[in-house]
Amino acid sequence: MAAAVARSGFRRMFSVSAFAPPKAPAPRPQADPSPNLFVSGLSKRTTTEGLRDAFAKFGEVVHARVVTDRVSGFSKGFGFVRYAMTEEATKGIEGMDGKCVLCCLMHSENW
């Protein structure tokens, strides 16, 4: 009897159903439109003025900031841009996503 219980436990441990693959994660919900953009993939030489100028082609930029290292003063590779209107931010995303500013690809998204 004990041998039968041990065998069934052994089978259960190595059965296919015990190792079912994890369920696929739910799709990420689409973010609400926002005039604030997170910009990544910036060159170390990108400045706040350069970021502002690059995005100003698509609308009125209220605020732009490149996050910099405290010691070296160089860009950490990302920044933020805020437009006056959400529609302008959408144009900025469409116009600058994957574009090169100081020879680095940028990726823009709402945050």
TrEMBL record:
Residue span, RRM domain: 35-111
Record-linked InterPro entries: Nucleotide-bd_a/b_plait_sf, RBD_domain_sf, RRM_dom
A Pfam family per the record: RRM_1
Keyword RNA-binding among UniProt keywords: yes
Superkingdom of the source species: Eukaryota
Claim: RNA-binding is one of the keywords in the record: yes
Keywords: RNA-binding
Cited PROSITE patterns: RRM
GO function terms (MF aspect): RNA binding
Protein name (Swiss-Prot/TrEMBL): RRM domain-containing protein
Organism of this sequence: Miscanthus lutarioriparius
